[in-house]
């Protein structure tokens, strides 16, 4: 069951490469006006960037029709006018072609279901020459009530600034999370070795902690990625049921991770060590209070997850703890495993994003469609850090817009950063050189990703830059130090040097090894996952490309506010 839940989350996310596709519908009766948010497809429709440059059309109300055929309407009925019809019964392209044949200058489709990005096959885009947008059914009802005597419409899509300060905030969150997770992993390894030496080297000093899970077999990595592929396909077909399972598991797993991170932090600073006994059991006051706080945070996020104004703070807090705890708890045993894992994830991305459109009947990318979600639920997978875009007006009718970054862009390279820090501990490398160099490489990879995103004005698969930067940098450091063979095989070499007592501990309060001990046997047999491992492994170990544009709910590294659909 744990593996199923893990794979569901692991294979479920990727960022759409679609540009920002929200526009503004300006309605007026000559004396007053009102604006609404609509969805459009930039491949299909070119809209003015300003209200002054937008054409004005008289709106014809055909909401009693779905316009899947032209019966009852003669050619020229809609000459030079915009028409609003209901969604359903046929594809968007069919409605647009019929409206165009009737002489309409624009078509608005009112949707009672969650609004999506209108889409069609690539060849169909050339058939339609008029603007096509989707709007909420309740919005058109409100407009009719506001302008009972008729109205004119204008459509425009304000330009989104290429750069926003939220990108810098997101960069800081990403680097902090990866650095903290890698640091904690190395500190735990130091403490584990110190405990082993202090007890005379016995008792499984090389084993992972009870809550840890070691990735040590290339075969298991390959099987695991193959299992991810199967689960992604299941998500594609059964999204509307599985998404709620994922949301529930995320709430539980993130609460556990947040408690773990805060508990160890307070322990290190010596805060709240009180305890009490009840029926022969001893309870930590600090742990109980933290458990109440963490559960409250997770429940609040679960209840208000679709609230844009403030819930992003809770999602980011839970996400940071989620990723840090994962990087500490999941140990990659050597560089060879890192290369296989990161390489396979890149191939996984390429296949399900760029190859599957040639295999599906409607030309959809399986991974993109899973990321966009089902229009029948309106739910999104909770797999991103979100920061509001500061350059976008809060008066925008499309609501709050966000810069976002997927957890996979932190966790996947973060596993390599964690391994580098553990290797620093094993080899007593000066100034944690592997860890620092790999963290800097991650920073540079993120900067390059954002730069390419801004210059190209389109989404970028972040791992395409992060994987080469981190893998090559760590390999170059190992080669330069003459440790490539040990770095490649990692703990499987059998023996590693251990720090002497003069070395400063990674965390205050961690035991230093006894003096003059030179080496200790290290091995990582396959541990049986504990109950906590079930939740630690349940997260999104996958990738979002980064997208410059913005959307109402999720954008920039981007899942649009409006999913993509043909009808």
Query: Biggest sheet, strands in spatial order?
Result: 1-2-7-5-4-3-8
Cα-atom radius of gyration: 27 Å
Mean pLDDT: 76
Strand pairing plus helix content: what structural class?
alpha/beta
- What helical percentage do the residues reach? 40-55%
Proportion in β-strands = 5-15%
What is the count of DSSP helices, taking H or I runs of 4+ residues? 14
* CA(first)-CA(last) distance: 36 Å
Largest sheet: 7 strands, mixed, barrel
> How many beta-strand elements?
19
Task: Give a description of the structure.
With 567 residues, the chain is an alpha/beta fold. The chain has 2 domains: 22-156, 3-Layer(bba) Sandwich (Glucose Oxidase, domain 1); 164-214 and 315-565, no CATH class. Helix content is 45%, strand content 14%. It has 14 helices and 19 strands. The strands form 7 sheets. The protein has a 7-stranded mixed beta barrel with strand order 1-2-7-5-4-3-8. Strands 6-19 form a two-stranded parallel sheet. Helix 7 runs parallel beside helix 10. The two termini are 36 Å apart.
């Amino acid at each position: 069951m744990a593996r199923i839940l893990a794979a569901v989350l692991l294979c479920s996310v990727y960022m759409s490469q679609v540009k920002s596709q929200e526009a503004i519908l300006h309605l007026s009766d000559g004396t007053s006006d009102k604006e609404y948010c609509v969805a459009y497809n930039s491949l299909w429709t070119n809209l003015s960037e300003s209200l002054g440059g937008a054409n004005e059309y008289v709106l014809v109300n055909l909401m009693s029709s779905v316009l899947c055929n032209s019966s009852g309407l003669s050619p020229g009925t809609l000459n030079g006018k915009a028409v609003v019809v209901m969604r359903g019964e046929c594809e968007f392209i069919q409605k647009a072609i019929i409206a165009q044949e009737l002489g309409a200058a624009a078509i608005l489709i009112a949707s009672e279901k969650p609004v999506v990005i209108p889409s069609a096959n690539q060849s169909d885009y050339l058939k339609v020459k008029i603007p096509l947008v989707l709007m909420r059914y309740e919005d058109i009802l409100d407009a009719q009530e506001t302008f009972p005597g008729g109205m004119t419409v204008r459509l425009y899509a304000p330009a989104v600034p290429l750069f926003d300060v939220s990108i810098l905030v997101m960069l800081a969150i990403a680097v902090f999370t990866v650095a903290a997770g890698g640091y904690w992993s190395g500190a735990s390894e130091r403490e584990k070795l110190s405990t082993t030496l202090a007890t005379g080297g016995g008792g499984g000093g090389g084993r992972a902690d009870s809550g840890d899970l070691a990735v040590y077999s290339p075969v298991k990595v390959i099987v695991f990625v193959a299992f991810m592929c199967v689960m992604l396909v299941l998500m594609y077909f059964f999204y509307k049921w599985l998404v709620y399972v994922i949301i529930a598991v995320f709430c539980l797993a993130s609460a556990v991770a947040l408690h773990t991170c805060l508990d160890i932090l307070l322990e290190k600073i010596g805060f709240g060590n009180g305890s009490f006994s009840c029926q022969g059991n001893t309870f930590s006051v600090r742990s109980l209070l933290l458990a109440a706080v963490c559960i409250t945070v997770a429940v609040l996020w679960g209840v208000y997850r679709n609230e844009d104004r403030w819930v992003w703070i809770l999602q980011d807090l839970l996400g940071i703890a989620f990723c840090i705890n994962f990087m500490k708890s999941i140990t990659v045993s050597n560089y060879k495993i890192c290369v296989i894992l990161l390489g396979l994830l890149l191939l996984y991305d390429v296949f399900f994003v760029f190859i599957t459109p040639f295999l599906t009947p409607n030309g959809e990318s399986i991974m993109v469609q899973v990321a966009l979600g089902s229009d029948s639920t309106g739910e999104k997978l909770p797999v991103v850090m979100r920061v509001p875009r500061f350059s976008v007006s809060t008066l925008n009718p499309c609501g709050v817009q966000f810069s976002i970054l997927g957890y996979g862009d932190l966790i996947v390279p973060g596993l390599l950063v964690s391994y580098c820090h553990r290797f620093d501990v094993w080899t007593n490398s000066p100034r944690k050189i592997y860890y620092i160099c790999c963290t800097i490489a991650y920073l540079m990879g993120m900067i390059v990703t954002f730069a390419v995103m801004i210059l190209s004005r389109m989404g970028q698969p972040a791992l395409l830059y992060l994987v080469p930067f981190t893998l090559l940098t760590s390999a170059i450091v190992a080669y330069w130090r003459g440790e490539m063979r040990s770095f490649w095989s990692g703990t499987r070499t059998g023996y590693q040097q251990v720090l002497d007592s003069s070395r400063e501990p990674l965390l205050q309060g961690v035991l230093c090894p006894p003096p003059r001990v030179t080496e200790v046997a290290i091995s990582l047999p396959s541990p049986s996952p504990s109950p906590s491992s079930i939740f630690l492994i349940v997260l999104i170990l996958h990738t979002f490309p980064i997208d410059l544009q913005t959307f109402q709910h999720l954008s920039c590294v981007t899942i649009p506010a409006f999913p993509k659909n043909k009808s």
